[in-house]
Amino acid sequence: MEEEVNIVDSISDFYSDPDTKIAILSFGVLFLLVFSKILLSLSVFNTISHDEATSWEDYQVSFNEQSVFFDDELILSDGQTEIINFEIFESQIPEGHLIGEINIIISYDETNSAIVGEDPCDTVQGSILYSEINLQWNDDNNTMSGGSNSCEEIPLQIRAYPDYDGEGYEIRSYNAATASVPWTENGYGLGLLDIQIDLEVQKSQVPTEDDDENESIQILVEIVCFELQVEEIV
Amino acid sequence: MAVEDYNALEGISAFVYLLLGVITLILSRRTKNNSWNEKYAAILFGWYLIFIGLRTFGGYLAGGSVDVSDWISDASEMTVWITTSARISIPIMIALIFPYPFLQNKNSIIISGIFTLIFTICLSGTYIFSDQYGFIIFRFVRNIPLLIWAFVFVRFSIRELLMEEEEARILSSSAGLLIFALGGVRIVDWLFWLVMPDRWIVAQDLRLTASIEDFNMGAYLLGRTMELSIAVSASMTIFVFESYRNYRKGSSLLSSISHIFLMIGIISFFVNLSVLKDIDKCVYDVCQGLPDSWIIYNTFTNNLAYFLVQPLIIMYVLLNYSLLDTKTDKNGTLARTMVILMVVIVSSTITEMIQAIVPIGDMITSGIMALGIAAAIGWEEKIMKRLLSFQESVNEYLEELNEIVIFEPDMKQIKQFSSIMFIIIIYDILMSIIHASLKLGF
């Protein structure tokens, strides 16, 4: 053979080899059988799951919230800065729940009493420190730091699950499972959360009962967990 | 844990593919004595490896596992679409040239180039501007080379086993190996796909198509059926023929690989059965993903088949079926480098993957890796000798059958083909920049 061979002739030569024709044909038949079996399985036998995937309906997505709390108390002296860690494990989260957001309340009182008048409240600053924990660090709604010099509570907040705000909404989707797809990612909010606390003692101008050198500060961490509920709107 | 392992594997694999692709192209350029089909097949394999490397690297960057900017992530997404299109069109042309030359034309390489260019532009365009048809066409076309190779395997296995034509084995074994190389990912679950593909496919793919209204489920299922039925029927045929051949003539690399896939397919069937409850949740309940244990198993089977088995088998085919000339000193050194690199990368990857499951210390891992490197260098000569001891060409037997036209490879056309491949890469770069800047498509 020295000239070019047309592809059709080449294919026809290949398939018309008299010694192997039956085997080639048998493979062709096997392929068609397997093709038919898989096609039937996918499109005819399991029609229930199929139906679930072919028509769009309206669904109401809502969240059942349940909170898990951690607390700690520390005594800081004037000018001291302390970093406190809370480790959040998967086992601490209620079953079937994911972490939506983390709220932190830093509270304190002026424990020292002035003999005459009032001892002014100390100044406390609190902030959530960036760490490896999987949170939405750049979310616009986060309150990453705050402070008080009037003994008011200092609220901090950080979003854990992307776009989670606890509000339900309506969506068009194939079924409840596909409507729930954005809310099934594990791992958000798990890890070590670092909170930094600074104290500056405000001393009274008049004599006090004790030396106003330190203050006790309480930290309450609320892990807002959510369980997804998806219902078809009839 | 498993997700990080998968990502690391993806990164390593991209490097392996790109390196192998470049070495293959250099070696094929230096190969002077091969006939047109071997030369063209080597070049096509080289470019296939490069595109699959680019695709894997693009997937690595776009997958969200590495901390990159949105711009890079979007650009990588476009790279994935374009290189995916190129990497499924090239094997179709390879299957028409090697091991059996269906396309016996002096312009074969330029036809391959034009086909790849048109196919890549059309399919990547479909990916960009349709939210579903690119995906459907991809499923439909990707295993067509396996079907062609399966016919070649059957014909020449019969010639070897029933008509006692020993040389026919060269064609059947190369076709069989290529089926496992390119279809290994689907063949890993061959039994499951054969027995109960419905529950898995509908549930898993529902997640992918959840945001697409009016999704053409009929066309999609047809594409999936085509993809799976080719992989299943081809693998079952090889299992039967290779078991019979093993019984009659003893084991070979292909029979060993086929038996491994046969066993893994049976094990995977039970493993997949055990997570069907989780899969059903994705259809009828809130989808919570699959258990970590399953993901680890999947990393060791499906992902390993794609990321490591495929380049290893392609490398073996390139070296063992005379697609590359490794006899000259210069080429021999490069081929040896390729083998050592592969051995080292495979041993280190497997060690890392084992470490992910059994947390052994870094010192021990480093020790094991050092052992792997020492073994690769120490036994390099032996590995190469063994690898190249059966270097065979498909052409001698095809000439005996009078089914091949032998002519000189056209160097001018090879250059034109390379230019077309560079055009695809430039097209990829430009489109990636445009996509990242303007957000093309749906």
What does this structure look like?
The complex is a heterodimer of chains A (234) and B (442). With 234 residues, chain A is of the alpha+beta class. Chain A contains four helices and nine strands. Chain A has helices at residues 7-15, 21-45, 47-52, 176-179; strands at residues 57-77, 81-88, 98-108, 123-129, 145-148, 154-159, 169-173, 191-200, 214-232. In chain A, the strands form two sheets. Chain A has a five-stranded antiparallel sheet. A four-stranded antiparallel sheet of chain A has the order 2-8-4-5, with no helix packed on it. With 442 residues, chain B is mainly alpha-helical. The chains are: A alpha+beta (234), B mainly alpha (442). The interface between A and B is large, with 53 and 62 residues.
Question: In short, what is this structure?
Answer:
The complex is a heterodimer of chains A (about 230) and B (about 450). Chain A has helices spanning about 5-15, 20-45, 45-50, 175-180, and strands spanning about 55-75, 80-90, 100-110, 125-130, 145-150, 155-160, 170-175, 190-200, 215-230. The model of chain A has no long low-confidence stretch (mean pLDDT about 85).
Topology, pairings included?
The complex is a heterodimer of chains A (234) and B (442).
Chain A: H1 7-15, H2 21-45, H3 47-52, E1 57-77, E2 81-88, E3 98-108, E4 123-129, E5 145-148, E6 154-159, E7 169-173, H4 176-179, E8 191-200, E9 214-232
Antiparallel strand pairs in A: 1-7, 1-9, 2-8, 3-6, 3-9, 4-5, 4-8
Chain B: H1 2-30, H2 36-62, H3 70-97, H4 108-129, H5 133-141, H6 144-161, H7 168-187, H8 190-195, H9 197-209, H10 217-249, H11 253-274, H12 276-284, H13 292-320, H14 329-357, H15 362-378, H16 380-388, H17 394-400, H18 411-438
Helix pairs in contact in B: 1-2, 1-13, 1-14, 2-3, 3-4, 3-6, 3-18, 4-5, 4-18, 5-10, 6-7, 6-10, 7-10, 7-11, 7-13, 9-12, 10-11, 13-14, 14-15, 15-16
